[in-house]
Design goal:
Length: about 180
């Protein structure tokens, strides 16, 4: 982390962390993970001022709204939680991956979405497909009684019917929302 540059400014507090944070600029070669979204951190961010504390936040994670209404879960608002609601980790209802950072949560339904998944675009244009893909909040096979499973056209893995998918109806082509859509 030798290339990180601290910007001279006063400290700030964030409800997700006990120590003050300060603005700094992270470089790609620093290989830092954001404590909020658990993705690579580059550019303007926040770092814990305490020397032995490895708490970092993207500016976008620092500024997340405390509550959102999301098309995937229209009956209840989703509340931003800074730690997993069920212990060490949670399963994201969008991508199916485990998370241990911030989540948008509906406590009534035990519905959780990574903060990164909550704001993915409603369309994607992968290089390997001629049409734009539309975001669906479950697979096209959901509710079928014949037991047919949806298979990701990129990685060729079966997908749970409740996972979100980028889909082209014209070609019956679909992909996982995070790991496969940009392929």
């Amino acid at each position: 982390m030798g290339s990180e540059k601290t910007i001279d400014c006063p400290s700030v507090k964030h409800p997700s962390h006990n120590h003050p944070l300060w603005v700094f600029k992270s470089q790609e070669e620093d290989e830092i993970i954001c404590s909020g979204c658990e993705l690579d951190l580059t550019g303007q961010a926040f770092k814990c001022m305490k020397k032995d504390c490895d708490y970092f936040l993207h500016k976008s994670c620092f500024d997340l709204p405390g509550e959102i209404t999301h098309k995937s879960h229209p009956d209840h608002p989703l509340t931003l939680l800074y730690s997993p609601p069920y212990g060490q980790s949670y399963g994201c209802n969008a991508c199916g991956e485990l998370g241990s950072g911030f989540t948008y949560n509906c406590s009534e339904c035990q519905y959780d979405v990574h903060v990164g998944c909550a704001f993915i675009p409603e369309t994607a244009e992968p290089e390997d497909h001629e049409h734009p893909l539309t975001l669906l909040y479950n697979t096209p096979c959901k509710g079928r009684e014949d037991g047919v499973m949806f298979i990701c056209d990129v990685c060729e893995e079966d997908m749970s019917e409740d996972l979100w998918v980028y889909y082209c109806k014209e070609c019956d082509y679909g992909t996982h929302v995070q790991s496969c859509e940009a392929s």
